[in-house]
């Protein structure tokens, strides 16, 4: 690693306007090849040395270098890679969250094409988590995305949650969400959750031991509102963007802005309201 650092110092260039040293993607890729590192390992090593890979340059100065470092060192469990999860994965990987574990046992169907970023006419039937990992490797190869091609449940969540800093709940249905929230609470891991139906988006967060948005879901046998109102792309995009923002805020500052609260967005009327659920 010492040789890598020395070679990186020789390659790094000064960005005068942002007052940081940077390295280009292809330069970093070749450097990693030369020193037997994966690209995510090289990106993390560069950030630790104060050299910003150019794909992360525009994150500054909304994020400091130390905050970007925290993202690179973080692990997120993304439960679901459909309407919400596909957009969340896109945003968190481009932000530079170092390790994202995305779990989904489902495959794409024709009816996903209206709103799910990861679905295409060519990958119908393909596993959603695998498709998300493949896209993330193409759009932001500086982070590590691991695909779990199965559904999360009480039998596997304890193991999956090991080493996770925060969970993003992008599931559909009520029963799987309640199982996820319970397991995360027992593991001491906060959850950033969202739900969409029609033009409506709901987003909220929960710290371990604290009830919030999950208190809205009481009966595991109930169907979610999507079955009545459908699911539209603008609501899914908005909810996912808010989940990603909340997740990044937590990983960089340790604070959940929506802990114990729920943001309700009605895009048909452009009405937004914040509720205290604690």
UniProtKB/TrEMBL annotation:
Molecular function as annotated in GO: tRNA threonylcarbamoyladenosine dehydratase; ubiquitin-like modifier activating enzyme activity
Q: Where is the THIF-type NAD/FAD binding fold domain?
A: 63-273
Q: Check the record and name the Pfam families matching this protein.
A: ThiF (PF00899)
Listed InterPro entries: ThiF/MoeB/HesA, ThiF_NAD_FAD-bd, Ubiquitin-activating_enz
* GO biological processes: cyclic threonylcarbamoyladenosine biosynthetic process
Taxonomically, the superkingdom here is: Bacteria
Specify the protein name: UBA/THIF-type NAD/FAD binding protein
Organism of origin is: Desulfomicrobium baculatum (strain DSM 4028 / VKM B-1378 / X) (Desulfovibrio baculatus)
